[in-house]
Fold this sequence. Notes:
The complex is a heterotrimer. Chain A is mainly α. In chain A, 67% of the residues lie in helices and 0% in strands. Chain A is built from 9 helices and no strands. In chain A, helix 1 packs across helix 2 and helix 8 runs antiparallel to helix 9. Chain A is elongated. Chain B has 12 helices and 12 strands. The longest helix of chain B is centred in the middle third of the chain and has 18 residues. Chain B has an 8-stranded mixed sheet with strand order 6-7-8-3-9-10-12-11, with helices on both faces. In chain B, strands 2-1-4-5 form a 4-stranded antiparallel sheet. Chain B is an alpha/beta fold. In chain C, a hairpin with a 4-residue loop joins strand 1 and strand 2. The longest helix of chain C is centred in the middle third of the chain and has 36 residues.
Amino acid sequence: MSATTPAEVKRPEAMEAGGTSIPSADGAIGRRKLPRNLVIGAWLLIAWMALAVAGPLLLGSPTTMDLLHSLRPPSLAFPFGTDNLGRGVLTRVIWGAHLDLEIGFFTVAPAFFIGSTLGLLAGYFGGVIETVVMRLVDIAVAFPFLVIVIAIVAVLGPGLGNMYIAVAMVGWVSYARITRAETLLAKRLEYAEAARLLGLPDRRVLLRHLLPNVIPQAVIYASSDVILGIFLGSSLGFLGLGAQPPSPEWGLIIADGYSFVDRAPWISAFPGLAIVLLAISFSLFGDGLADLLRPETR
Amino acid sequence: MTKGGAMDDEAVSDPPLLALEGVGVSLTANGARLVEDVSFTLGSGESFGIVGESGSGKSTTIRAIIGLLPDGLRATGQVVFSGENIAGASEARLARLRGAGIGMVFQDPLSALNPVMLVGRQIAEALRWHGRLDPAARRRRMIEVMRLVGLPEPERLASSYPHELSGGQRQRVALAIALACAPRLLLADEPTTALDVTIQDQILRLLDELRRSLGMALVLVTHDLGVIARVCARVAVMYAGRIVEEAPVARLFAAPAHPYTRMLLDSIPQGPRACHPLAPIPGRPPDPAHRPRGCGFAPRCPLASVACTERTPPWRVLAAGGGFACFHPLLAEATTHA
Amino acid sequence: MIRYVLRRLVMLVPVAVGITMAVFLLVRLIPGDPARTLLGIHATPTLVAAMRAHLGLDRPLYVQYVIFVRHLAVGDFGHSYYYGQAISRLVLDHLGPTLMLLAYGTVLTLIIALPAGLLAAARRDQVADHLVRIGAVVGVGLPSYWIGFMLILFFAVMIPIFPVAGYGNGLPSHLFDLFLPALTIAVNISPLVLRALRASLMEALASGYIDTARAKGLPRRVVLLGHALPNAIVPAVTVLGLNIGYLVGSTVIVETVFAVPGLGQLMINSIGTRDYPVIQAVTLVLGVLVVLVNLLTDLMQLLLDPRVRREVT
C-alpha cells in the first residue's frame, strides 16, 4: 500500500501567495514580501486569542439558566439569541472560544512531537526502527481517522482528555511520514554527510543539522491540521463523545441546538459560524506559512 | 521597405509568402522590449534561419508570427502572410491558420507530445480540425504523412504512446503533426537541439528534403550556426532583440559584416577558422528591462565607440543582398541602397 | 496486468492483518474482564463463562488473536445483545446505505470539483479563479455537521424540498433523500480535489504539448479539455483516493445528522449502549473498506495513465 501512497501525506497545493512578484524577461522573480494570507491569518488568530482570554473576563457565566427567556431570537440584549435553557448564545460562544483553541492545540501538539521524533529517527537510522515505524504507519493509515478515534474514545470513555489520548495514538502517523520523507532527502545532502564525516555524534547531527531543515514541512502540515483537530473535537462534542455538558464547547452547543432547527436555528447557526471563521483564520495562516517556507516553484 | 533582397537558388516569387515589418514584443507588465523592430521577408519554398544566443528574442519572434506568445507578452508590428496581415488577427482566424497554413515544431520532442494520447491520434487531430476528410481518408493521410517524415511501420507506430518512442522518432512525429495539413510555411524552433548529434543530422536532412519536395517555406530558429549552414539559404543574426545582420549563408560565413557575427563564428569549434583557438565572447547579453542606449552589443564589442552608445545603428542594405546594423562593420567596402 | 492486481491484493494481506490486530487489541484496552465488557449489561455468570470459553480468554494473547481471526474468517462477528442479532447480519443490513452515501458523495464531489477546477485554471488569476479559490477555502473550513445543519435549515425547513432525515424506500427515493447528506460530504471533499486539479491543470498547461496542440490550430477550449485535462485528472483522482479516510469519517457524522441507517449510525448508537462487539465489527469493516477503496484508486490510475500501465507490465 505504501508503494502507491506518497511517501509523505501532503495537503494538496497551498493557494498561491498574494505577495507580488514582478516577472522580468530573464525569468527572475522580483521582490518577495510576506504573503498576504500569512499576515491576515496571523492577525485573525491574534484577535481570536484575545477574544478567548478577554471574553470570559468581561461576560457573565455561560451556564446560568434563565428559563423565562428561553428560545429568544437575536436581540439587543442577546445578540445571538438564547437557547432552550435561557442561556445567551453569544456568551456561550465566546466562552467556548478558548475551549476550541485548546482542542486545536492539544490535538496537534502531541501528535506533532511524537510523530516528528519517530519520523526523524526512522529516516535517519533506518533499519529496524524504520521498518517498525512504517508498518505502524501503514496500519494506522488504513483506518478512517475519525472512526478510529471514535472507537478509542468509545473504549476509554467520553471526555476531552480521552479524546486527546485517542488523537495522539493515531495522529502521529502523518507527522512521522512527513519528517521521515524529509529526513531521507536531507540525509543525502552535503551538510549532513559533512557533519557525519566530521565524526559528530548522531544526536548532534540530528538536533543541530537535520532537524531545522526537516521540520518546516511538518510545521506547515500542523498549521492546517489544527483546523481538522478543531473539527474533530467539535464533531465528537456533537456526537456526545467529546466535551460534556454543560461545557460551552461549540460542537456541543450545535448538537443541543439541533432539535430546535425549526424553532430556534440561531442556537446552532452561530457557534457553527464561529468554527468556520476560526477555521478560515487558521487556513489563511497555514497557506501563508506554506508559501513562505516553501521555495516558490509557482 | 523590405529589408534585404532575397537571393536564393530559386527566383524570388512575387509577392513574398511571409513578411515581418517592424515586429516588436514587449512585456505588458513593465514594457521591457524582448523583440525590437524585426523585419524580414520570405518567399515560397525558401529557407530562412534566425540565429542568436539564448535571450536574443529569436524564439519569441517566431512565436509572435502565429500568435503563440505566453501570457503577459504583447506584439506590435505587421506580420503579412500570403498578403494578409495576421498580426492583430482574431484568435479564431489564427487558429484556422495554425496547422493548416503555418505549421510549427518545437525544441523538446519529449514534452511536445501529449503523453496520454496515442501518437496517431495526435497527428490526425490536425486533420480533423482543418480538413473535410472522412475518417478513412484521414487515416490514409496520417499514414502518408508518417511515411513522409520517415517513420517506420506507421500503422503500428500510430497505436503507440510517445513514451514508447525514441527521441528522433518523437521529433518526426512532431513534424508529422505540423505537416499533416500541408502548410505552406513551417516554423521550427530549435528542432534539433534536444537530439543526439547523429539524429540531428537525419532530422535536418529530412527538413531540407521536405522543403524541396513540398515546396514549403521554412523558418528555422537555432543557436547553432552549423545547423544554419546545413539547411538555410539566408540567415538573420539576432542580438538583444534586434536583427543585427542578415545575409545569404555563404556570404555570412565567409565575410560577416557585423562584429557580433564575426565573434560568433570565432567561438564555434567547427567554424571557418577551425584552426584558431576558440574565442568565447566575453560578457553576457543585456537584461531586456535594462537595455543600454544605442547598440545592444556595444558593451561587449571590441570595436565600440561613443557613437555606438548614443544611437541605435540604422539598418543598411547591401547590394549583394542582406544588410546589417553597425557603425563599424567589418566590410572592406559597404554599399548602401537609398 | 492481472498479475499486478493480484500482487497488490497480496500486499494488502499484511495491512489487513494489522487492522484485525488493532481492532482485536481495541477491546482489550478496556480495563476489566473482556468477556464481561463485551456482554455489558447482559452479563450473567453463565453467559460470562460461555463467552470466556468462546474467546479463549484463558489462553495466551496470541492464541486469542488466532481464535478471533478464525471467527472472522467464517463471518462470525459475534452477537449483539442489544439488537438481538448476529452482528454479521447487522453489518450487512447497514452496509448498503453507507456504500450508497459514499458513492453518491464521490459523484457529487466530482460534479462540483471538475468544472470548478477547469474554470479556475482556464481563467487563472481572474475573477472566476479567485472566486473558486475562496469557495475552496470556505468549503474546507466548514465542519460537516454544520454544513448538514445549514442545508437542513435552508432546504428542508425553510424551503421544504428535501426530507430532514431518512433513507427512503427504493432507488429513486434513496437518491432523493440522500441528496443533502451526499452534498454535505461533497462540500467538504471537493475543495481538496479542486485544488489538486487546478494545480495539476496549471502544470499541464505549462507543458510543451500544449504548444503543439495550439500550433495545430485547436481552439483553447479543446486544448484545455482534450489535452490538459486528461493529463491533469490523474493527480486529482489520487487526491480523492488519499482522502477516502476523511470521506468515510465524514459519512459517520453525516449519517448521524441526517439519521441515515448506515454503519456510522450503527456505531454511534452502539457507543451509547456500550455494545462493544458492534463497535469492533464496524471499525473493522470500515477499515477494510478504506483499504479496498485505496486499491481501487490505484487501479484507476492504471486505467487513466498509459505511462503507469507501462511501468507496471
